[in-house]
Amino acid sequence: MIDYIADKYKIDRSRICMVGDRLDTDIVFGNSNGCVSCLTLSGVTTEEKYLSAGNNIKARLQSAHPSPLPPLFVP
User: Fold this and answer.
1) Could you tell me where the beta strands, DSSP code E, fall in the chain?
2) DSSP code of 34?
3) pTM summary value
4) Distance between CA atoms of 18 and 64, rounded to whole angstroms?
5) CB within 8 Å of 24: residues ≥ 6 apart
C-alpha cells in the first residue's frame, strides 16, 4: 500500500504519516515502512499502555486529541 501511494504521488516515504490508535498494527505498519507514525490516544491504545515499561513500540508523534487535525507533539 505504501509503495503504491509513494509511487503514484511521487512522495518520499519519510513524508507520509501513518495515523492510528493501535500500536500493534497502525504504528508498526508506519514504522516498518519508513513513514512518520502518529499515535492517537482516542481509541484502542491508552496512554497508560503506551507509556508502560512493557511497551517497546513507539510512535514518532502522539496526540490525545480526537480531532482529524490534532495538535501534535514529539514525545
Assistant:
1) 17-20, 36-40, 61-63
2) T
3) 0.80
4) 16
5) 57
